[in-house]
Amino acid sequence: RARPRASRVARASPRPEGTRARAPIRERVEIVVERREMLADAAHSAMTSEDDVEEDGGAATDGAQAPYAAFCTAAILAAVHRAAIWRDSKDFVDTRSRSPPAKVFEALAQSRAATCSVAAREFLNEHFESGPRERSKMPELADWRSEPAVARGARCEKSREFATHVHELWRVLARLDADDYAEEEVGAEGEARRTTSSRIRLPYPAVVPGERFRETYYWDTYWIVLGLLTSEMPATALGVTNNLLYMVTTYGFVPNGARVYYLNRSQPPLLSSCVAEVFQATRDVEWLRQALPLLVQEYAYLTRSERTVTIRDTETGETHELSRYFANTTRPRPESYREDVEVARRATRKVEDAVAKLEAKRKIYRHLASAAESGFDFSSRWFLDGDNLETIRTCNIIPSDLNGFMLRVETQIALLAREALVSLENEDELFAERVYLNHLLEKFSRASEVRRRAIDAVLWDDDVKRWRDMAFEPLMGEDTRGIVRDSDDLTAASESPFTSDFTPLWCGACDPDSDQAYEVVESLKKSKLVTDKGIATSLVESGQQWDWPNAWAPETHMIVEAIQIFAPREEEYAKTLAHSWLRTAHQAWKSTGYMHEKYDVRSTEDGVGKGGEYIPQRGFGWTNGVTLRLLEQYGFPQD
Questions:
Q1: Beta strands in 416-533 (DSSP E)
Q2: Which candidate in 94, 215, 377, 600 is catalytic?
Q3: Of the four, 175, 380, 444, 499, which is 20 to 30 A from 347 by CA?
Q4: Which helix (H) or strand (E) segment is 223 a member of?
Q5: Alpha-carbon distance values, 470 to 409, 457, 485, 493 (Å)
Q6: Sign, CA torsion 118/122/128/134
């Protein structure tokens, strides 16, 4: 695949040499929808053909022609599992191969790696490197300065020291995708001669979460953008946003992360939020006009039939279309192959019929990948019994947070289209673009109104004054692309509250300063999720990382900002929540020397969150972004 062409960047960041400017906006408007739909269909067709291979099967006969085949086929992943070289399944699929895919498959067919652990280790040692490549050099972040305003304006030395340290981490977390490619594999024109890495190459420096998460992740990027803008780094924020837009250009959607094994799923849709924040900072109207068609294309992916559930309201007779998470795979996740196979084995151990067992495993794999798409991987909110991962049923749930995010996407596209319209001069040659932008404004204004009514009718629980995930029963042989249920068929997915229940407030599911908004805040206060050390994701102690006792940066920020905007008379409560987060993050930093992915709201020595399928991670992109933003807004808590 050719090296990606760079999108236009803000004036604060010069265009890299050798890249070409985008086509004029009018040409892009004419071709963008058709071209992106074709690319999305091609990407999904490729992944679907591979996804139907059972976990114990061999490599596909034409797999050597696919650039991701050497990393994602069941035969090789099973050999990796058998060899037990890598402690973390993700480390292998992030490791470069020494040989092109065709040679890897030929060698695999001739080896005994499928049955012998010694042969598997010999095969892997010969054809793959020993582990993922770490950053070999620091990319230049042209707009990074040693002391941003958030540090200069600190009211105490403790706050200044904390803000300065977190700001410095942007350079630590910056990555150049070229680090993952050997120099001898790059031709004179800068194009890779063959694909030996699972990394999706991006046009601009990436800012990654940290440690095992060594590539761009979709929804993490939004809070990274917030932090970069707080650090007065608009060009870098623009670059990481352009990386997401580039993936829409290439695949028709933003995958979970910048790895080819993530091409079967996305993550919570926050691209429009990234674009809105960057536009607000740069006021670059030409860039906005180029980004809008890509937001529309992502929306087309997000509203595909398999991702939509139609609900018939038995009281009013209305029908409502709501969204669900739905990964396009029925195989174990390559980055968690060992873990997924074990979950499926436990879940189907009492199923005796071989065909029924295989079908049950495939459903489990889809539910696991769909939970990863939700960002809540994993949480008891997806479990039928509320406790065990083997009972996961993600695709059978209509999530309150996802539909809030979709409302936010629809609202923001309409607002951004209005901004672009205002910027147009009254010239005849811009007539076609004016018509297009008016169409977007009308279409997405209407879509947001419809979505808001649907959220209120189906997901709002007036008894507890919050939104709820709703579950439905799957039907035998039902087509995943046409799910229809009566409202009477839905039940609350869990009785326990989750922070995700309050996400629709941040997304605009009720009016600012309305009675409903204050009822939601009061419901949060009564939920027992709020502690002195932060907001716990749930009250269920399942051992999963998105449950008690962990607090997460994105959930904290969304709740704090939702109160600021929609319940302004509770501003002091928002400040209290922000200070709880800052106090916990600072305590953990002083105890460990690191910023962390999540925090424990119980009174522990270092406050570091634990649980889930991998060891706690440090870095950490969205934690840094939220910490800087809250420091800027509320300052450091003065105990």
A1: 460-461, 466-467, 470-471, 483-486, 491-492, 530-531
A2: 377
A3: 499
A4: helix 218-230
A5: 21, 12, 12, 5
A6: positive
The two tokens of residue 638 are 């003065």
Cα 155 to chain centroid, rounded = 35
CB 471 within 8 A of CB 393: yes
pLDDT profile of the chain (639 residues), mean per 10: 39 37 42 41 36 34 39 82 89 89 87 90 92 83 95 92 97 79 48 66 94 95 98 98 98 96 96 98 97 98 98 96 97 94 96 96 98 98 97 98 98 98 79 94 98 98 98 92 95 97 98 98 98 97 97 98 98 98 96 96 85 84 98 87
Please, which contacts does 418-427 make with residues 24 or more away whose CB atoms are closer than 8 Å?
419/279, 419/285, 419/288, 420/285, 420/288, 420/289, 420/292, 423/285, 423/288, 423/289
The pTM of this model reads: 0.88
Query: Cα-flanking dihedrals φ and ψ of residue 491, to 5°?
Result: -130, 155
Which residue reads 């937001």 in tokens? 295
Facing residues of 552 across strands?
A: 598
Query: Which one from 88, 597, 600, 632 is the annotated catalytic residue?
Result: 597
597 has catalytic annotation: yes
- Alpha helix ranges (H) inside 69-144: 69-72, 74-83, 89-93, 101-110, 117-127
CA nearest to 325, candidates 391, 370, 385: 370
